[in-house]
Amino acid sequence: DGVQEGTGRDWPCWRGPERNGISRETGWTWQWGSEGPKVRWRASVGKGFSSFAVADSRVYTLGNMGGTDTVFCFDAETGKILWENDIHWRKDGRTHGRFRASMLQADGRIFCLGEDGALAELKLTPKGPETIQRVRLFAARSTWTLPSLHRGLLYVSQNEHDLVTRQPPRI
């Protein structure tokens, strides 16, 4: 069914495990007072548009510092950076990536889809991430969608026609 079950505090992708924006957690309130909710920690990841994925007491997000697209992994309790990984790359004299959309954390991996049709897949290990693949799926300018994993198949959506083949948007 494509739903990723969490441990109650896991939030593996944008809008949560059921992708409906609803948390099943209990024991919290919307009544924060005039100061708002208590901030546990803050971190700087540069420019970015990604939401967060939370799994196994780790928080993952994307950011861009100094022109480098990076996946950041933080300790969920302390905010300490556990690792960071540069995910954009150069090939044929061109930079590929521009990872702006939210990522998907599933099955011990992170999937990031760049606005130009580039896909990065990282395997999560105790020592940090291992790059599984970086591939350009299509040529685009503004693909900001979240990849989906269902029954072992990864689905990505293209928002506009392919700039090279001129094919219409597709999944």
Write the layout of secondary structure elements.
Elements: E1 53-55, E2 58-65, E3 68-75, E4 81-86, E5 89-91, E6 94-96, E7 104-106, E8 109-113, E9 118-125, E10 128-136, E11 148-150, E12 153-155
Antiparallel strand pairs: 1-2, 2-3, 3-4, 5-6, 7-8, 8-9, 9-10, 11-12
Series of secondary-structure elements, N-terminal to C-terminal? EEEEEEEEEEEE
Shape: globular
E-strand count: 12
Helix proportion: under 10%
| Helix segment tally | 0
> What summary fits the major beta sheet?
4 strands, antiparallel
Quick check: average pLDDT?
78
Q: Provide the β-strand percentage band.
A: 35-45%
> How would you classify the helix and strand content by structural class?
mainly beta
Low-confidence regions: 1-7
**In angstroms, what is the radius of gyration?**
17 Å
Cα-to-Cα separation, first versus last residue: 18 Å
Q: Explain this structure to me?
A:
With 171 residues, the protein is mainly beta. Helix content is 0%, strand content 36%. It contains no helices and 12 strands. Strands 1-2-3-4 form a 4-stranded antiparallel β-sheet, with no helix packed on it. Strands 7-8-9-10 form a 4-stranded antiparallel β-sheet, with no helix packed on it. The protein has a two-stranded antiparallel ribbon with strand order 5-6. The radius of gyration is 17 Å and the shape is globular. The two termini are 18 Å apart.
Short recap of the structure:
With 171 residues, the chain is mostly beta strands.
Highlighted features:
171 residues, mainly beta, 4-stranded antiparallel sheet, 12 strands, 36% strand, globular, disordered N terminus
